[in-house]
Prior knowledge:
By secondary structure, the protein is an all-alpha fold. The protein folds into 2 domains: 1-56, no CATH class; 60-92, no CATH class. The protein has helices at 5-24, 31-52, 63-92. The protein is elongated and about 45 Å long. This is DNA methyltransferase.
Amino acid sequence: MEEYLPLIIQLVSGAAGGNLAAKLLPKLNLGTLGNSISGILGGGLGGYLLGMVGLGTDGGMDISGILGSVAGGGVGGGVIMAIVGAIKNAMAK
């Protein structure tokens, strides 16, 4: 179970990041469920990409690993939510 903890942290942080980004960018808001789902996807993707470039966690659960998972997930979640919101707005025009 411990090997999945960084991923779980990234997914939860992604959901939080997606909802936070929606509060900061209300024109891109997808609703709570949409923000959470896109944030979860972005959190997983953000954590994966950080791992690929060597900035992610190596599965360790020290404080730097936890903070890296939170940051990667939160930023990834916010970015993906904003991208999906912008695409949705562009298609609605």
